[in-house]
Amino acid sequence: MSNGRYEDSQLYRIRHSAAHVMAQAMLERFPEAKIAIGPPIEDGFYYDFDLPRPVTEEDLEWVENRMKEIIRGNHPFTMREVSASEALEFFKDQPYKVELIKDLVSGRVDENGNEIAAPAEKITFYTHDTFTDLCRGPHVANTSEIDPEAISITFKKPAGAYWRGDEKREQLTRIYGTAWENKEQLDDYLNRLEEAKRRDHRVVGEKLDLFTFSPLVGKGLPLWKPKGALLRDTLERWLRQIQIENGYEPVVTPHIGNLNLYRTSGHYPYYKDSQYAPIQIDEEEYLLRPMNCPHHIMIYKSEMRSYRDLPVRYAEFGTVYRYEQSGELHGLTRVRGFTVDDAHLFVTPDQVLPEFKRAVQLIQHVFNTLGLTDFRARVGLRDPQSDKYVGDDAQWERAARDIIQACDDLGLTYTVEEGEAAFYGPKLDFIFRDALKRNWQLGTVQVDYNLPERFELEYVAEDGSRQRPVMIHRAPFGSLERFIGILIEHFNGAFPPWLSPVQVLLIPITDRHVPYAESVAAKLADVGIRAEVNSGKARMGAKIAIGREQHIPWMLIMGDRDVEANAVSVRLRTDEDLGSMPVDEFIALAKRVIDEKSLSLS
RNA sequence: GCCACCAUAGCUCAACGGUAGAGCAACCGCCUUGUAAGCGGUAGGUUAUGAGUUCGAAUCUCAUUGGUGGCUCCA
User: Which of A8, A154, A266, A366 matches a 20 to 30 Å C-alpha distance to A321?
Assistant: First the structure.
């Protein structure tokens, strides 16, 4: 946002007002509807209704057309202060409004569900045309300020939403709208949505043969196909190597563990609702592990530790299983079985700051290499109001100080947000903004005093005393599944060559060029370049079209001229034509780009 | 889990109460091709599953399963 707060912008007033216009039109369509709330949101607005029947597409079209009519009526928006009793009388048939007014007057929460410090001093109504709503504004002065061609409510399907976001309360129908200053902006926005749909990792993943799901295997359990597994394995091998270079030691632990392990860690029964139910076997109960930390802790605990051994850094691509509500599953970004690029660092209190910094630097290196440069850091501290956190104040303060110190030392741009801590300690999260300007929480580094306490971890200090280590949890990718899902959408399937499942597509022009293509492919394979020959009967143009669709970085076209010269004609997936070059020259070029993990193709 | 919507060939879709079809992919031929899909043919479906209504169901009803958009949740 270039100029000030969204709440103060004209766009905000347009959207807020459009929400009222929509409510008016909806009430005309559904006179018995009960209205809830209708605030502006990012890119638009919504209004929640309690309706006698489901909304159809025809309803939405009717309402949208009616909205345009109302807007064209040039109705002024007028504000009026009313007393609580007057407000209650006016909305006596609107139970949701009554509840809102009562909460406003009693000073509990405002219309958006935010707690308010004191009872509202005044209640205001906004009226345009025939519709009056409980609202504190602001609005446009007149509906003429809204461009009737710059709104849409048919662009998105109605959705269910709980009254006041509480799943124990009424389920309402939420109608989403979008509104802009002019038609061009609306079209831009709709195009952005279309682009996001095209880039959807579920669609692209299917097209590129990366992964699939099978109801017979189970919901939320992705199956990686060879090309997806190759991409994933490339990432894993790369990070594993970086970690070894940074003093991490790979460990391997099982995917299930005795329930008592999770009782000790505190995950069970506290997070029981988001775990697979325990498995009973031989009088014992086992849990599909929801986290890797307890397993790594038991390795730490398997021997006596000296301060000289610390820091101990255990890393594992550890697969975990969590019960996610069925409605929350979404492609690779929300699954029930996923792999965390997990590592647990066991350090002395003095080592927290330097180790934390090293972990952050490692994450920065990972992101920068992938070209994920648009990210910000968020320091998550505990919510001072809440008692859901463990550990004493001094530890929390020290950890928070260390994290902020680390950010300052590294020159990170960061925000500090209360209530974003893990229950066992403060943390630093990296929020990445992808090519479509959407935010994703990726890597995380967390300081933990709790688990060492619960598992009674120790090391022998210089003076011979037993001391408690501190743990640092960190994961640059977070979940491999989610991370790759995000990469797919960010790159639109056009991965940097070192990650591309197929790096080179060889296209012989006629059958007689196939043996030559195969000999070139063999040379490429010799130096570790992933190449495929398309020896099918299709014409060259068709093969190029397929290669483009698969976003294969390099296409090598070869006919008589190339065979003659022991050359290949190089075409990039960006449609750039590098012309003919000797085979060895191309191999050197591709090898350099791949080895450098370059983001460009030449 | 909740609300709404959806489910037809491997993929994208058509048929909308009266015999299930197309394009792409696959397979087989022909063409032997120079930078964004040459031509012809073959095969592929108890219309997600199970009940029901009907003379007759892909089509209407109900249930189940799976998916989609949101909500809630995400240690």
Answer: A366
Spatial CB neighbours of A87, under 8 Å, sequence gap ≥ 6: A101, A123, A125, A134
Q: Provide DSSP, A452-471.
A: HHHTT--EE-TTS-EE--EE
Closest CA relative to residue A507, chosen from A462, A552, A477: A552
Which residue in the block uniquely carries the two structure tokens 């095209």?
A198
The pLDDT tens digits of the residues spanning A35-56 come to 999 999 999 999 999 998 889 8
Residue A2's pLDDT band (cuts 50, 70, 90): very low
Tokens of A71: 């807007």
Structural domain spans, chain A: 6-194, 227-253+292-491, 497-595
Nucleotides of B under 7 A from a protein CB: 1-5, 11-12, 25-26, 29-39, 65-75
The whole-angstrom separation of Cα A139 and Cα A13 is 5
**DSSP code per residue over A328-387:** G-BTTTB-SEEEEEEEEEEE-GGGHHHHHHHHHHHHHHHHHHHT---EEEEEEE--TT--
Question: Percent of chain A beyond pLDDT 70?
Answer: 97
- Would the pLDDT of A599 be above 70? yes
Residue A438 CB: number of other CB atoms within 10 A? Answer: 13
- Look up the protein residue whose alpha carbon has the minimum distance to the C1' of B71: A161
* Cα radius of gyration rounded to whole Å, chain A: 29
Give the angle subtended at the CA of A445 by the CAs of A439 and A446, to the nearest 5°.
Answer: 120
Work out the average pLDDT over A467-480: 95
* Distance from residue A196's CA to nucleotide B33's C1', rounded to whole Å: 37
Residues 398-457 of A with CB under 7 A from strand B: 422-424
pLDDT at A113 over 70: no
Residue A407 has phi, psi (to 5 degrees) of -60, -45
Does the nearest atom of strand B lie within 7 Å of A511's Cβ? yes
Tell me the pairing of strands A439-448 and A470-475. antiparallel
- Write down the architecture of domain A227-253+292-491 according to CATH: 2-Layer Sandwich (3.30)
d(CA A498, CA A346): 33
Contact A570, A503 (CB under 8 A): no
Which nucleotide's C1' sits nearest to the alpha carbon of A578? B35
Provide the CATH topology of domain A6-194.
Threonyl-tRNA Synthetase; Chain A, domain 2 (3.30.980)
CATH code, A497-595: 3.40.50.800
pLDDT at A35: 96
Whether this prediction's pTM lies above 0.90 is answered by yes
Q: What is the pLDDT of residues A140-196, one digit of tens each?
A: 999 999 999 999 999 999 999 999 999 999 999 999 999 999 999 999 999 988 888
The DSSP secondary structure of A274-335, one letter per residue, reads GSPPPEEETTEEEEE-S-SHHHHHHHHTTS--BGGGPSEEEEEEEEEE----GGG-BTTTB-
Predicted confidence band at A300 (pLDDT cuts at 50, 70, 90)?
very high
